[in-house]
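Lab manual, section 2.4: Encoding a predicted structure.

Procedure: take the sequence of the chain (111 residues), apply the prediction step described in section 2.3, and record the output as structure tokens. A sample record is shown.
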Amino acid sequence: MTLKATSALLLVAITSLTIPAVSADSVDASCEGYRHGDAKHDRWGACSFSQRQGYIDIRLKNGATFNLSPRNDANQYKDGEGNKVDRTESSSDRQVFEWKSDQQKLVVEFD
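Recorded output:
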């Protein structure tokens, strides 16, 4: 085996040891829902948040699900009924989604 081939194999072996395993794309969170600009939430509780290739799924403990598909620009989505949804806040602790058509807001806080 040549020095070049040995070096390549060694690099592959070292790289495979240092790359962390890919984690699942779903995490536990707490969700609060607000309607029509109300300060008081009308839905709250455990939920799961999943994001993959620009698509977002949020499943509440009560079974309600929000499936968001990307639109043209960053942080712009549409729900399963075609309503426009904007992600107005995104951090490692929480994400906020707002429906423009009915002034609904969904706050996802990560556990």
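Check your result against the sample. The longest strand covers residues 43-52.
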